[in-house]
Amino acid sequence: MSSIKKIMVPLAFSPFSEGVLDYAAELAGPLDAELLLVNVINERDIEAVQRISSFGYDVDEGHYVEEVEKNRIAELEKMIAALDFPEEKIVFKFKIGRPADVLLKMAVKEQVDMIVMGIKAKSELVHAFTGSVAEKLFRRSPITLVSYRDEYHAEKLRKKVLE
Fold this sequence. Notes:
By secondary structure, this protein is α/β, with parallel strands linked by helices. The protein has one domain: Rossmann fold (3-Layer(aba) Sandwich), CATH 3.40.50. The protein has seven helices and five strands. The chain has a five-stranded parallel sheet with strand order 3-2-1-4-5, sandwiched between helices. Helix 4 crosses helix 6.
């Protein structure tokens, strides 16, 4: 594991993000690895804003992206302040696009050694139609992925396995 020098952490700013970041920092600390935190604004959200704007509403893409970034940076600052990890070893990047594609390309270009991410719980029906970013990364990534589970979801999964 000494070859792990850069760990990418995709953050969706969901209720699970803080746990994912904490876990990644726990892994990175003893390895003296850098954390590359990435948030992808889904291009579908931008398209929705453009559609709303085309109906005459006073909404524009640039303002939307600016507000999302401002809110997420504020949330990220709180998360980082709670970490026991050197801030100089943390890099944060915003991207716009299809999350799975953007994350895969970034991981390869940035020469990431590991990706740590959480998996959101979805119903089987919704999952069948939409898939998830995590599942796409697990299928397509040439880079080792670590799947984080918080204790609440881990316990639910343990019970389901034993049913």
